[in-house]
Design brief:
7 strands; YojJ-like (1; 296 residues; 7-stranded mixed beta sheet; single chain; elongated; 53% helix; alpha+beta
């Protein structure tokens, strides 16, 4: 016991600010790893792994330093790298998920020059598919002005933005195909959202409710709204109270890239876990659609 107390006293006397900084960095790294795994099946495993590592370190230190068991200490030195490899195998899904989150970080987007182009391509592919099939759609992309009030009128999703999912939402028969979709932070925040109608802009009578709703939202916010006409299949863009139409797929890609380039950081910095996001709710059941009656 006296030797242990003497050892602690020696450590205390030789402890420097550099040692404190090193300990803080290690503790911070462990905390970040644990926070990244929190809520997953690996959280309990990592707690047990850290506990086992600390206990084994203390036990090996005592056995090797005070009982002169050098071979045991050498064996422990070989086991630690093996445990690190084992941890990488056990936490492979969590590590992959964490690396994906790291790649979505807005700071890294600046260096990787990827920015908004990734999800612009997904929106364009979905709009082109809907246009070919003459399926109506309205997609609002949030920029600086928050669209929390609009999101609250729809069904909260917080889903990964893919062209297939976006197309499926608007496909006839989908419970969420009516009204619009809001994209925030490069993700589908909500669907079946109600957009306001325009108060200032007067549109041509050939434009339907979707076009009017798109212009109405663009009057009140700085969002970029993509509209696909159900009647003609034409693709339009509403921005700053104006309706620009028609666009081909390549023209839409160029226009969205130009509009979203200045808001590139904003597109990923808005967290979907903030207070203005409603809790998930089940979509209301719709009445089963009846086939139209045959016309004579």
């Amino acid at each position: 016991m006296t030797e242990i107390l003497n050892y602690i006293a020696r450590v205390y006397q030789t402890f420097t600010p550099t040692d404190a900084l090193e300990a803080a960095l290690i503790a911070g790294l462990i905390y970040l790893i644990y926070r990244g795994l929190r809520g997953t099946r690996g959280a309990r495993v990592v707690r047990g792994f850290i506990f086992l590592l600390l206990v084994s370190f203390v036990v090996m230190r005592i056995l090797s330093d005070y009982l002169q068991m050098g071979r045991l200490r050498a064996l422990y030195g070989l086991l630690v790298p093996a445990m690190a490899i084992l941890a990488a195998i056990v936490f492979q899904p969590e590590l992959r998920r964490s690396l994906m989150r790291l790649g979505e970080n807005p700071i890294l987007r600046v260096f990787l020059k990827e920015g908004a182009s990734a999800f612009v391509d997904r929106i364009v592919r979905s709009a082109a598919m809907l246009s070919r099939n003459k399926i109506g759609a309205i997609i609002a992309i949030e920029r600086d002005t928050r669209l929390g009030a609009v999101i609250e009128t729809g069904t909260y999703l917080d889903a990964e933005l893919t062209s297939r999912l976006l197309t499926t939402i608007f496909w006839p028969g989908s419970p969420l195909h009516d009204m619009g979709v809001v994209i925030r932070g490069g993700r589908i925040a909500a669907a079946a959202c109600e957009f306001p109608l325009p108060r200032q802009t007067v549109l041509d009578a050939s434009h339907g409710t979707r076009h009017r709703a798109a212009v109405g939202l663009s009057e009140e916010t700085d969002a970029v709204i993509v509209v696909v006409s159900e009647e003609t299949g034409d693709i339009s863009v509403a921005v700053e109270g104006r309706l620009e139409t028609p666009f081909t797929a390549e023209e839409l890609r160029a226009r969205l890239t130009d509009l979203l380039r200045s808001a590139e950081a904003t597109l990923t910095e808005h967290s979907l876990a903030e207070p203005d996001m409603p809790k998930p709710r089940e979509p209301e059941p719709e009445a089963e659609a009846k086939p139209p009656a045959d016309t004579p």
